[in-house]
Design a protein that fits this description.
This protein has five helices and ten strands, in the order E-E-E-H-E-H-E-H-E-E-E-E-H-E-H. The protein is α/β, with parallel strands linked by helices. The protein has two domains: about 110 residues, Nucleotidyltransferase, domain 5; about 70 residues, ATPase, nucleotide binding domain (Nucleotidyltransferase, domain 5, 2-Layer Sandwich). It starts with a strand and ends in a 25-residue tail after the last helix.
């Protein structure tokens, strides 16, 4: 059975997992701010050694492709592409919001909609909406939270909101009938495993040289006021 390495670096969580097929072997993660530059490669090395695996044992690398932190995405993609190129193994791209929804769906049996919200600074979030079969109901978008914009989520069905952008949106979203909130869903590499293995089985890979993260919006550099 194939060993897959999974890299999640789109938020403040630095998370690395190894799976055997669709089953989690081990995970190492830290949610302590943007520590990816310091920890990501260290976690990969430690995780393989702790499970008596060598890089050549890996059959593919999966990367959480965004949207999310610009810097985190760049670091994660650089690591994933470097490994895939050096080991001559496939690269698998996993939508971050869909992976978050996998974790939420597992926590309820309700026939509902699932809306991951990732912090995009100020009163903006990256979001989408899925049913419990992961069919897209509302497309991925960068949404400024207002009383008018959140009406898009009022679809006459129970809807669960989660992710690191949810707390700042909660007061507004509570006005939506049948709205529910999950506080314990984080961007973890463990959420990627089933999606990645399904893609691995059908050889749904991305180009190692030319694939890019889904930034969703442009990144702007700012300079501090003197």
């Amino acid at each position: 059975m194939a060993y897959l390495l999974h890299i999640e670096s789109t938020s403040t969580v630095c998370s690395i997992a190894v799976s055997k097929g669709a089953d989690l072997v081990a995970i190492k993660e830290l949610n302590n701010g943007y520590t990816h530059a310091e920890n990501l490669h260290v976690f990969i090395d430690e995780l393989l050694k702790e499970n008596t695996l060598k890089p050549n044992d890996l059959s593919a690398v999966s990367i959480s492709s965004g949207p999310g932190s610009y810097t985190g995405l760049r670091i994660g993609f650089s690591a994933a592409k470097g490994l895939a190129y050096a080991l001559q193994i496939p690269l698998i791209s996993i939508d971050t919001l869909k992976a978050l929804s996998v974790a939420a769906i597992k926590k309820t049996t309700t026939n509902a909609l699932f809306c991951p919200l990732m912090d995009a600074r100020r009163m903006e979030v990256y979001c989408a909406s899925y049913d419990n079969q992961l069919n897209e109901v509302l497309p991925i978008q960068a949404l400024v939270l207002t009383e008018d914009s959140i009406k898009a989520f009022d679809l006459n069905k129970p809807i669960y909101f989660f992710g690191d952008g949810m707390p700042k949106a909660k007061e507004l979203l509570q006005t939506i009938p049948q709205s529910f909130f999950m506080d314990d869903i984080i961007a973890s590499a463990s959420n990627m495993i089933e999606l990645a293995f399904a893609k691995y089985q059908v050889k749904d890979f991305v180009d190692v040289a030319y694939s890019e993260p889904n930034y969703l919006k442009e990144f702007f550099f700012t300079t501090a006021k003197k």
